TrEMBL record:
Record-given protein name: Mono/diheme cytochrome c family protein
Organism: Ammoniphilus resinae
Keywords on record: Heme, Iron, Membrane, Metal-binding, Transmembrane, Transmembrane helix
Organismal lineage: Bacteria, Bacillati, Bacillota, Bacilli, Bacillales
Transmembrane segments: 6-23
Chain segments carrying region Disordered: 32-58
Gene3D superfamilies reported in the protein's UniProt record: Cytochrome c-like domain (1.10.760.10)
InterPro entries: Cyt_c-like_dom (IPR009056), Cyt_c-like_dom_sf (IPR036909)
Length: 143
């Protein structure tokens, strides 16, 4: 039994460390890919946005591309093609309260899931980003 417990803890530590490295590397790649710092000017931010490949078929979903959400999530109702690691966010506006026990606004400020807590915790949304995401998720849920 002791040997199995040791194997479990070693496996757990490797998996946890791998997940941490994955998210840390992803953040660094996003920065290297041209995401600007919060102190960057509006003209610099517009330049970065225009340099990113568009994966949203409508302007409503562009915030998910800009913010990097589409690395893990799709928003199919807005034409945002993204990764399959996370769930499609098309119904998140209405599903988050039931799934996570808090309104979506609170979830985006302080996520109740471990994965999203790590993702958003290190790079919180600005007020403008929060509004844009909430508006887009509301539109997505109505389609």
């Amino acid at each position: 039994m002791g040997k199995n417990l040791i194997i479990f803890f070693v496996s757990f530590a490797v998996a946890l460390g791998g997940g941490y490295l994955f998210y840390q590397t992803g953040d660094q790649q996003s920065t290297a890919a041209g995401k600007s710092s919060p102190a960057a000017s509006d003209s610099e931010q517009k330049e970065v946005v225009s340099a990113q490949p568009a994966s949203a078929s409508s302007g409503e979903g562009e915030i998910f591309v800009q913010r990097g959400c589409s690395a893990c999530h799709a928003v199919s109702s807005l034409g945002v093609q993204g990764g399959a690691t996370g769930p499609d966010l098309s119904k998140a506006y209405t599903n988050v309260p039931d799934k996570h026990g808090v309104p979506i606004e609170e979830f985006l400020k302080k996520p109740t899931s471990a994965v999203m807590s790590g993702v958003i915790g290190g790079n919180p949304l600005t007020d403008d980003e929060m509004k844009a995401i909430l508006d887009a998720l509301k539109i997505a849920s109505e389609k």
